[in-house]
Amino acid sequence: MIEVNFDGLVSPTHNYAGLAIGNLASTSSGGGVSRPREAALQGLEKMMTLVNRGVPQAFFPPQLRPSLPTLRKLGFEGSDAEVLKTAFETAPGIFAACSSASSMWTANAATVAPSEETADRKVHFTPANLVTNFHRSIEVAETAQMLRSIFRDESCFAHHDPLPATALFADEGAANHTRLDGVHLFVYGSVSGDRKDRPSRFPARQTLEACQAIARLHQLPAERCVFIRQNPEVIDAGVFHNDVISVGHETVFLYHEEAFADGENAIQEIVGQCPHHLAIIKVPASEISVERVVKTYLFNSQIVTLPDGGMLMLCPTECQEDNRVYKFIVDNILGGENPIREVVYRDLKQSMKNGGGPACLRLRVGLTEKEIAALPPRVFLSAGTFGFLESWVKKYYPEELEISDLVDFERYKRNAIALSKLNSWLGIA
Ligand code: SUG
User: Fold this and answer.
1) Ligand 1 proximity of 173 Cβ (cutoff 6 Å)
2) pLDDT tens per residue across span 318-362
3) What is the CATH number of the domain that holds 351?
4) Is residue 25 situated within a structural domain?
5) pLDDT in tens, 63-82
6) How many domains does the structure of the chain reveal?
7) Structural domain boundaries, residue 31
């Protein structure tokens, strides 16, 4: 099986609206001026870093915003231009939510199970329902459709509907799901009916009920699934997804001491389920506080396997700029006993300002060569597809953007043309 990272290509409407409660970077960036072109080029550069190291890389196209169908569903009427104008003037909060470019964080697009681990030997996808935040729930229908058109061969791919759109099944996709040595680790923030262990300040975006439903839908053997509760205190400190406080890949698991409600027992449970020896890297709170974790996104790094079997970790530059985190990486990750032998740092500041680090920007999909051959070839990054995407971005993306710019119907039409050209080029229009 080959792990392919599907990154979300940043949209020409990337903006800062301060919409995601519990995501401290998003709320503190709200109202700022964004730089869509720079954001998209930063994302492409990250993708090419991995391509150049021989790591398979693909992408998902952005969604068109503001979402006119959503605004119409909410009662805004008239021509398209009027809908934009009335919504902006009379309901600026709703307009901003309908304008979010949040589909770029594809770790939240879906949960995926590779064919070698499912009972029917198909790759299973469940798009996340993203019910906790209105602006994110808008993504779901189009994401589901896009997944079906990219992974379209029914003999290889099984697509489930998103879970029922209600708090009981709140689901944020792969951001709370990790495959470790063939074991599926599901991390949840709340359990229905359990009031005492919930975070008190910020919402828990993933429930145990959602995780269990996905494990059933994906036909995963029970002995290959572990369900672990996130520490509610870290959710209240800004860890809105588990991928902000732990990261796993194959036989490596990097986690923060305070990540899980059951502390070391949780780790023992994970270790007990995994068939092989895991390289466990624990980050003690005495060395790196949760506050520093949230600021630097150490755990939102990507760990990938290089063609020769060694591992590379791709971190945001914030990790290099923070002395403590940098020292920990050098002394305990590079200097420790584990397969990670190289660390690279990439500037993703435009996405980071909305709380989206390297790992948020990608959905890992484990595929066989036959399954890869069933995909539209242009979703894969190569020197050729990169050249197309880079010039497409340079042609259509503004240098700077504020939410008020998105009321301009001429801009909307131009973005609609740009995205439809991209989708036709991809062969998924
Ligand atoms: O859902 N930010 C996203 C960031 C998602 C990060 N993903 C992972 N950790 N996997 C979120 O909080 C901000 C949008 C705004 O405020 O304009 C936002 O939605």
Assistant:
1) no
2) 999 999 999 999 999 999 999 999 999 999 999 999 999 999 999
3) 3.75.10.20
4) yes
5) 999 999 999 999 999 999 99
6) 1
7) 2-65+100-426
For the chain, what is the radius of gyration of the CA atoms? 20
Residue 201 CA to ligand 1 centre (angstroms): 17
Tokens of 361: 């920007």
- Strands, sheet with 225-229, edge to edge from the N-terminal-most edge strand: 177-180, 183-188, 225-229
Give the neighbor-by-neighbor strand order of the sheet with 57-60. Answer: 57-60, 2-8, 362-367
- 225 noted as active-site residue: no
Say if ligand 1 is within 6 A of residue 244 CB: yes
